[in-house]
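Go through this fold for my students:
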Amino acid sequence: MKNINFIIKAISLVLTVGVLLVYSGFAAKHHSSLKAHEQAVAEIEAHNAEVLRKLNEAPAGKYKDGEYEGSARGFRSDIKVKVTVENGAVSAVEIVSADDDQAFFDRAKGVIDSIISAQSTEVDAVSGATFSSNGIINAVVEALKTAEG
């Protein structure tokens, strides 16, 4: 009987230690995943802070308020845009006309948000829609040439 109690206690101890080891393995994986997530959040927050800093440092009144048009070559056609400037900053970019391939052009329109966010035409083209993206960017450059104050 003494041996059975000892064996049961030993098995219980081994199982408990095993469960704790498995749990600590999961906890370690979760901890490293959490650290990676915290690092990604920190990088995003730093990037956002940098963008805000640049926006705040942008010279006020860089452009004259108004609406300006520009055009540039896209993938298959000229792209014509209307750029709206309010309080010296680009507030909107509207596509007036374009006959580029619609699937690529729809993707390229994503560059508009980048231009407005960065308050700059020094933005990356949309991958897979490079010619259309560059057409939009260059059309905005042309429009802003007449808006410079």
